[in-house]
Design goal:
Layout lengths: L1 E5 L3 H9 L6 H28 L4 H5 L2 E4 L10 E6 L20 E3 L5 E3 L3 E3 L8 E3 L3 E4 L5 E10 L6 E5 L5 H5 L5 H24 L3
Antiparallel strand pairs: 1-3, 2-3, 4-5, 6-7, 8-9, 9-10
Helix pairs in contact: 2-5
């Protein structure tokens, strides 16, 4: 899945065609404008995800990357906003408050036992939900996350196997269809603005 940003729209093509008599600098102007717009769209994507999902901007930003345009095809200069990293946002991102590992609860006898069941809030418009069987743990690698027992055993057969839990992926959220119109309108607006700025700088040299 990817969000496309490019010079394939009719309005942008008309602008570029009108300047076709200029040296190849116009292609580079297009590349710079598209890449700048890609950065804009990536930032807007972070904002849109955070608008509806209860997660920090940095967590979303880490799972999006910009594949920059190269200008190899002057007729179709395109950049892509892609997903990267794990299959989704770590469920730990949606746990608010203290994130102690391992998560424990106090027993009547005064000791502690692992706390099974983690409260998470994924969407801002929804309340908190209990992730039954979930618990916070720290792996040998030092990574902390929300885990659940998978029902199997570890390779040595001595312990219950556990799996790390993830929420939705930012690129999956943005490509769900819910934000298509907002992203398209924003992308077109920013691309036209950035391209005109780049062309203005190019013409100032003549």
């Amino acid at each position: 899945m990817a969000i496309e940003v490019g010079t394939s729209t009719d309005e942008i093509k008309l602008l570029l065609d009108s300047l076709s008599a200029l040296p190849k600098g116009i292609t580079q102007a297009g590349v710079r404008a598209v890449n700048r717009t890609g950065q804009n769209v990536k930032a807007e994507g972070v904002r849109l995800v955070r608008r509806d999902y209860n997660v920090k901007a940095g967590e979303v930003r880490k799972l999006l990357k910009l594949l920059r345009a190269s200008g190899a095809d002057p007729d179709n200069i395109e950049a892509l906003v892609l997903g990267k990293g794990p299959p989704g946002l770590p469920m730990l991102s949606f746990v608010k408050g203290r994130k102690k590992a391992p998560s424990t609860r106090r027993t009547k006898g005064g000791g502690y036992t692992p706390k099974v069941g983690i409260s998470v809030q994924v969407r801002r418009d929804k309340g908190k939900k209990q992730l039954k069987g979930g618990f916070i743990a720290k792996m040998k690698s030092g990574k902390v996350g929300v885990f659940k027992r998978s029902g199997g055993k570890t390779k040595d057969g001595k312990k219950d196997a556990i799996e790390m839990k993830f929420g939705p992926s930012p690129i999956g959220v943005l490509e769900s269809g819910r934000y298509d119109r907002e992203i398209e309108e924003y992308s077109d607006e920013m691309l036209e603005k950035n391209l005109r700025n780049q062309v203005k700088q190019l013409l100032a040299k003549y």
